[in-house]
Specification:
With 255 residues, the protein is of the alpha/beta class. The protein has a single domain, classed as Uracil-DNA glycosylase-like domain (Uracil-DNA Glycosylase, subunit E, 3-Layer(aba) Sandwich), CATH 3.40.470. Helix content is 45%, strand content 11%. The chain has eleven helices and six strands.
Amino acid sequence: MTLPLSTRQLLQWYIESGVDETIGDAPTDRFAVVIPAVAATPPIPVRAAMANTESAVHYACELAAKAQTVDELRHALERFDGCALSKTATNLVFADGSADAKIIFIGDAPGAEEDRRGLPFVGSGGKLLDRMLDSIGLDRTRAMIANAIFWRPPGDRNPTPAETAVCMPFVERLVELVDPYILVTLGGAAAKSMLAQTSGISRIRGRWLTYTTPRLARPVHAIAVFHPDNLQNTPAQKREAWRDMLAIKRKLGEL
């Protein structure tokens, strides 16, 4: 009579027999095994997103209204946390130029070089803007230069309507504090946000419009021109840009 093997003896027998893998009684289809999906982060409801934007805009209006100088407005933006772009950008890109300039230029949004240095229009497009200013007898000491967005959007994407809305109270307050005679928007996005235009930049450029806010003592002459970056990419537009700069020079001479 053969005595039953203990578990230890049975395992030792398997090892000595060359067994190195165990299988079950029923086959397992590995291709049919479903890996549990990682739960996705639930999207923010539309109503909640709208409420967040409205709250941020309201806060921006309060901070901007309290600023009585351009420097105070900069400090207000430095402590403002209502725009998500401030968390991804390297630096705040505020404004550059004279606080009592007769003319203010507002571009679309900062790029990589502006984000790195914290100043508007300091890349290749900024160098072209400097030449454009020089062509009509201006430089950065006699103008104010800023953007409609104060932080660089990731990957230089277009700013969202919410990001534009949150920055707008500060842009409007900047114009009010400088109190210029002429506002020049650089690019289509700036023209749409500042001048309430729906047409493309090619249709509205070169036309004199009016810009006003409740706090401005008088309406400001406004005109939209091509963004310097566009002029670098599309040299054919430089002729129209030159005409627009001459129109700005004539308007300055009338004031």
